[in-house]
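Review session, final week

We close the course with one last complete record, chosen because it touches almost every idea we covered. It is DUF559 domain-containing protein, a protein from Plantactinospora endophytica with 182 residues. Go through it on your own first, then we will talk.
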Amino acid sequence: MGGGDAGLPVTTPLRTAFDLGRKSPRTEAVVAVDALLNRRLVKRGALTDFLAGHSGWPGVTLLREVLGLAEPLTESPMETRLRLLLVNAGLPTPTAQHDVYDARGRFVGRVDLACPRLRIALEYEGDHHRERAHFRQDVARLHELRAAGWTVLRFTADDVLRQPARVVAQVAQAVRERSAHA
């Protein structure tokens, strides 16, 4: 720890990632590490090297697991939670921030999470999606994604946090349906 403002001790982003990545529950550890990686406050290689130099410390087994699950492209804690919900259920690991193009090669949009081979888009809809302008853009984008042959599943915090079995069932159903036609 180093000195901070007003005599408060602080840690470096690297040490913060190391500490938070070793703390249960696993999902919250991944959320923290994803956020630090996404904001480029920490590099995965630096965290891996730091971990190697502190292999006897408590929680390093968890941190190794967290690093295996971490995704620097994840843009929000709820996207991380949605991704881990699916991974923990044994579903295919979705790709974060996937660019979708139509048959003519025209950019349609970037989706939060995707199973590109099956053309399944998974979107986390935070409160900002309720704003009128954002909502209109979302609807237009949804139509374009569907026209490009994508199945789009949209989830809210309530879905992910309070109805996880339903989310898993919906994604599993989409995977089964799309796999049958792939």
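Two points worth writing down before the exam:
DSSP finds eight helices and six strands in the chain.
The radius of gyration is 19 Å.
Good luck, everyone.
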